[in-house]
Specification:
Layout: E1 7-12, E2 16-20, H1 28-34, E3 54-60, E4 67-73, E5 86-88, H2 102-109, H3 119-132, H4 138-144, H5 156-165, H6 170-173, H7 180-187, E6 194-195, E7 201-202, E8 205-208, E9 214-216, H8 221-230, E10 235-237, H9 243-249, E11 256-259, E12 269-271, E13 275-279, H10 284-291, H11 296-305, H12 308-311, H13 316-322, H14 329-335, E14 339-344, E15 347-352, E16 357-359, E17 362-363, E18 370-377, E19 383-390, E20 401-410, E21 413-422, E22 429-430, H15 432-438, H16 448-458, H17 469-494
Helix pairs in contact: 2-5, 10-11, 15-16, 16-17
Length: 495
């Protein structure tokens, strides 16, 4: 394995690209357009909403025989995160003999493009879908396109094109990466940290400026912990769905960035009889699949969290650490009694998520400490979990509020009740007064007036950009009331 310093290396269509002298906050989109002149990839919103910039990022499978691709919003991804990976753009789909990819051919045949600005991103989203789902249904196509906006065509001809393209032979749909695989082996990043003469860990930067600013990509959790202990002010980067916004919209340039996407331990899910241990770098798409059967409402919340390009990069730990008052995953995790595994140097501690926040975007993390994993209990016999998010747009939008409820019914009465919400307080939180209004009560005995009183006593009224307090309070009451009525129906059915 050759070593190149201060250079981002990735594979693009059968060749190794070496990006030298670029800023650590250069986005993949900007590098494609300004340096490689691959202008098929477009900039629309620069926020990860419109999908005009979608590309496919590939990594070698564990056996090294295949490349696993995920759709990515290139406007948000920082170029150094590509180090050791492969990249496919809309220009990559055309065969050497000039033939178009079946998705491109179907878009032409079904009149799926008008002005064409959004078309490259749509094509890449659909090509990515067909790498993993051989015969998608309409619902799967709609989900794959949930992050692609088109102002011209409506979406029917685009969906028709996807379904038509899916009829092509598997070999025609498969991205041609035969020439990429040996090159990916050549530039594969080291899986172990480097050590100095005295046995101390030496973290090599992917990029470092003359002024000392740097982008590092640790190989192990020990290396990451050591680096953060020495550089506690460093910005942790996982999916870049938040930091990419700060770079694009606020023009922030963090002095030190530590990327966790190459830390193998943080990308694993471990399970025992009672819980899952979800590493801090596990993408939401994987968590969604993991929870689909056990907690379908939670999986649906994650599906609506964002489009496939967002879910393929964003992480639970990133959503938690960001600490938005309207963070979607936290109410679900709190209602399920999730805990956080926190790491500082060689020391670890486990903390209930309900004790993590101290205020709006404030938490208990110490200097140099980070979230190593999320421990999520598995469902136990008799437990019921419900969650629902309300937003202006059903998909791809932030919450007005989200409520999550977990309970058991014992002799027809609520027991072990957990209720959590977002959007009503400075941070997501449990709601003890609503829990008390349900605990020990039969579903049919819970009244709207009692829930109104519990909501009024639990939160400080305040209006927000997304919803007024009056609207949010009404939503809070109605969401819990709907869960209660559903519980009453379940109890009646059981009889």
């Amino acid at each position: 394995m050759s070593e190149v310093t201060n250079t981002v290396r990735f594979v693009l269509d059968g060749r190794i690209v070496e990006a030298r002298g670029v800023r650590r906050t250069t986005t993949v989109l900007d590098y494609l357009r300004e340096h490689l002149h691959r202008t098929g990839t477009k900039e629309g919103c620069a926020e990860g909403d419109c999908g005009a910039c979608v590309v496919l990022v590939g990594e070698l499978s564990e056996d090294g025989e295949r490349v696993h691709y995920v759709p990515v919003n290139s406007c948000l991804q920082l170029l150094p995160t590509l180090d050791g990976k492969s990249l496919k753009t809309v220009e990559s789909l055309q065969r050497a003999d000039g033939r178009l990819h079946p998705v491109q051919e179907a878009m032409v045949a079904c009149h799926g493009s008008q002005c064409g600005f959004c078309t490259p991103g749509i094509v890449m989203s659909l090509a990515g879908l067909l790498q993993t789902v051989r015969q998608p249904g309409r619902a799967e196509v709609n989900d794959a396109l949930s992050g692609n906006l088109c102002r011209c065509t409506g979406y029917r001809p685009i969906v028709d094109a996807a379904l038509q393209a899916a009829q092509a032979p598997a070999e025609a749909l498969r991205i041609d990466d035969a020439a990429d695989r040996p090159l990916l082996h050549q530039i594969r990043r080291a899986s172990e940290p480097l050590y100095g003469l005295e046995g101390d860990i030496v973290t090599q930067p992917v990029l470092r400026t003359r002024k000392g600013s740097e982008f590092v990509s640790p190989a192990t959790v020990d290396e990451l912990a050591d680096y953060l202990l020495k550089n506690p002010e460093a910005t942790l980067l996982a999916g870049s769905t938040e930091i990419g916004l700060k770079v694009n919209k606020n023009f922030e340039r963090p002095e030190r960035i530590a990327y966790v996407g190459q830390v193998a331990e943080l990308r694993r899910v471990q399970a025992d009889a009672r819980s899952w241990r979800i590493g801090a770098a596990v993408p939401l798409a994987e968590v969604q699949t993991l929870l689909a059967e056990a907690y379908p409402d939670f999986a649906e919340v994650l599906r609506r969290f964002g489009s496939p390009p967002i879910r393929s990069t964003a992480t639970l730990a990133g959503n938690i650490a960001n600490g938005s008052p309207i963070g979607d995953s936290m109410p679900c995790l709190m209602a399920l009694d999730a805990t956080l595994l926190l790491r500082r140097g060689t020391q670890t501690r486990e903390l209930p998520l309900t004790q993590f926040y101290t205020g709006q975007k404030c938490n208990v993390l110490q200097s140099g400490e980070f979230i190593e994993a999320v421990r999520l209990p598995k469902p136990q016999p008799g437990e019921v979990f419900r969650a629902h998010k309300v937003s202006k747009r059903f998909e791809q939008d932030i919450s007005a509020t989200l409520f999550a409820l977990r309970y058991r019914l014992e002799a027809g009465r609520f027991a072990a009740v957990r209720v959590a919400s977002n959007g009503l307080a400075p941070s997501p939180a449990r709601v003890p007064l609503i829990e008390a209004a349900l605990e020990g009560r039969a579903p049919a005995d819970v009244t709207a007036a009692e829930l109104d009183a519990a909501v009024a006593a639990s939160f400080q009224p305040r209006d927000g950009l997304r919803a007024s307090w009056r609207y949010r309070a009404l939503l809070a009451r109605n969401l819990v009331l709907q869960f209660v009525e559903d519980a009453a129906g379940v109890e009646e059915t059981a009889r």
